[in-house]
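Dear Dr. H.,

I hope your travels went smoothly. While you were away I took the liberty of generating a structure for the chain from your last submission, since the lab meeting agenda had it listed for discussion. I wanted you to have the full record in hand beforehand rather than looking at slides cold. The sequence, exactly as received, is reproduced here:
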Amino acid sequence: MAVLAMIVGCGARLDDQELPESLCGQGELRCEGRVLQLCVDDGSAWAPLEVCGSAALCNPEQGCRPLACVEDETRCFGYQFQRCAADGTDWEPVAACVNAAACDPKLGCMPLP
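The corresponding predicted structure, in token form, is as follows:
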């Protein structure tokens, strides 16, 4: 008896038994929000691999990138007073102080004496 496969819509049939449709390629990575997922060996499902610090830090090519900073953390970078972005990906400028000596990492730009 010959085994015949027919393509019906998107699923394949083999001797009247429907074969599962492949959702992804083996070893493929994707991000679902902040969760890095790995395609299971048979391509039938996605499995969580790692939970990233935020969705913006999830990258299917690089995996979870580290946080650049903690939300609402502040610092001085030269004469720039900066605050951490809400998603922890980068520092955002808040104010440009007169010079580096006028920048306080907690309070921001201060008047010079």
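Two observations you may find useful: The radius of gyration is 25 Å. The chain is about 0% helix and 45% strand.

With kind regards,
E. W.
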